[in-house]
Amino acid sequence: MTENEILSHFSKVKRNGKGWTALCPAHEDHNPSLSITNDDGTWLLNCHAGCEFGAVVDAAGLREAFTVKTSTGPQIVAEYDYLDEDGKQLFQVVRQSPKGFRQRRKVNGEWVWSLGDTRRVPYRLPEIIAAVAAGTTVYIAEGEKDVEALRAAGAVATTNAGGAGKWRDEYSAALAGAPVIIIADKDEPGRKHAAAVAASVRSHAASVALVEAAAGKDAADHLRAGKTLQEFVPVADAEVDGKRPVRFYTVPELPEVQHAEIEWIVPDYVARTLITQFTGLPKEGKSTFLAALVAAVAAGREFIGRRTTKTRVLYFTEEGAATFLHLMRRVCAQDEDGITVLLRSEVFGLTWAEVCEILRDCCRKNDIGLLIVDTFTDLAGLAGEDENVSGPVLAALKQLRPIAADGTAVVIVRHDRKDGGNLIERGRGSGAFAGAVDILMGIRRRGETQREINAEGRIDGIPASLHVDFDGIEFAVAMHPKEQRDLAFERRVLAVLPRTESEAIGIDALVSKLDFSKPTARKMLKRLKDEGAVFAGRGKGRVSAAQAVGWWAP
After folding, report:
1. Which CATH number fits domain 120-242: 3.40.1360.10, 3.30.1130.10, 3.30.1330.10, 2.70.50.60?
2. Which of 59, 192, 405, 483 fits a 20 to 30 Å CA distance from 129?
């Protein structure tokens, strides 16, 4: 079935990033809770309300078009062999669903999930050698999927293992004397990668041209849309000789830009391409709150009244293995394989820039949608006065921007000042932090189990305050303390008001019974009257409880 035919089986379909949202047909859905994704021809349906895949398929009438998979965990959906000049397998790249890539080699007939010192070569090396000898054009794409799409269209094509930024100069030697066409993915990392490949290949190839898809993001999208090899669009030689192509957009063209629409991981607080700062005093519950958040995101569960977008999480922590595992157990996430952990001890001796490159590489290879850096100041090496100086702060934050630009939501965790202040001023150290991030969040204790979450940012509609209650495992939205006080006042009023009109009492008598001020009593009575819980008795200022007070009855 075609894409339009599949989508026609759902209601209120709306484009959302790389996929769509729609009403789930398997339950009474009024707010679209179904995510629909086409992953290289494999349709993925995820109901955030918890409906099973099979139930959604049956309700949509798509049983014949879908195969229900009952297996759990990442599944290998494609295998790409990397061969030497003689066609002997050196190693293999596998593509998994949910989307991810891993590399393996055979040792004594058994797969080993590491390459060690295995020789690296470009993909489809024997075919490249034959094409060079025949003077045939060789296409270089970003990823094995695109290479296979180009080969199906009749082209000779290659790529490198590991994705963008992993091309090696020794690969270029295999292209000596060949006309080469490099296809850039239509995003910042893709164009940067294509430029680096062009710079490497130029001294070997007979000619080098840079192109990009006329439809979609990459070569596979272009060909899937019915375009031909001749219809790739020429682009400037990006970042070669210090030049960078600049494209201007009209407003209606902006949806073409990757991540032009905000893709919330946790609505109002955490989104792809944005950096969120989360602060709190020690022992206020910020680590537990974040642990509960990442557990919900990794499992695709609701969190503080919001439907999360299920994605893999990378948690970079200063904690040791034992204390971090204790934290995960506290929120029942000790078995959640959607959370990847990087311990600080693993990167001792590396610069912050080197660590960020490792984080970025992990996010790319493992399709990480959310990165937590806890705590940012310590992990970024902002020791002593550096935390209070805008220059080092901005330089450290700048290293995280490429990770966010790739489409990962980034949350940095910091400590509050002891003297508090408003949300912009609460974070310890330089005020440059608040100006350099996109969303500010803070947590404060409000009683034994309650916490107040404050937030503000560049996005309209972010709630300034939210009260949540922690039951020891999960956080849930709680009633605001003012609402609780008002409710308690109303119950006290209704408890002492007479039940009949003839016995109605005046406001002075009511105030004397409850020790309220008159303005408070009048305000309360007006609201209760509007709700139909009380009515005015005979005589000025006399009130009694309504006959039908429902749950208000004491």
Report:
1. 3.40.1360.10
2. 192
Neighbouring C-beta atoms of residue 121, cutoff 10 Å: 22
| Cβ–Cβ < 8 Å for 276, 264 | no
Length of the chain: 554
Cis omega (within 30 of 0) for bond into 98: yes
Where do the domains of the chain lie? 3-60, 120-242, 264-478, 482-552
**Burial degree of 430 (CB within 10 A; 0-12, 13-18, 19+):** buried
Tokens representing residue 402 in the block: 């490429």
Contact 89, 83 (CB under 8 A): yes
Gap between the Cα atoms of 210 and 185, Å rounded: 11
**Segments in 24-168 forming alpha helices (H):** 53-60, 125-134, 144-152
DSSP letter for each residue of 429-457: S-THHHHHSSEEEEEEE-SSSEEEEEEEE
Determine the pLDDT at residue 125. 96
CA–CA separation, 79 and 47 (whole Å): 29
Residue 421 CA to its chain's centroid (Å):
30
Return d(Cα 239, Cα 236) in angstroms, integer.
9
* Residues 175, 172: Cα–Cα separation, whole Å: 5
Q: Rounded to a whole number, what is the distance in angstroms from the first to the last CA of the chain?
A: 61
Tell me the pTM: 0.50
DSSP letter (8 states) at residue 175: G
Name the H helices within 101-187. 125-134, 144-152, 169-172
Q: How confident is the model at residue 199 (pLDDT cuts 50, 70, 90)?
A: confident
Cα Rg of the chain (Å, integer): 30
Distance CA 422, CA 427 (A): 9
Q: Would strands 339-343 and 233-234 be described as parallel, antiparallel, or unpaired?
A: unpaired
Phi, psi of 447 (to 5 degrees): 110, -175
pLDDT in the model for residue 179? 93
SS (H, E, C) 381-420: CCCHHHHHCHHHHHHHHHCCHHHHHCCCEEEEEEEECCCC
Is residue 312 very low, low, confident or very high in pLDDT (cuts 50, 70, 90)? very high
CA distance 385 to 88: 57
CATH topology of domain 264-478: Rossmann fold (3.40.50)
CATH number of 482-552: 1.10.10.10
Distance CA 403, CA 305 (A): 28
| pLDDT value at residue 21 | 85
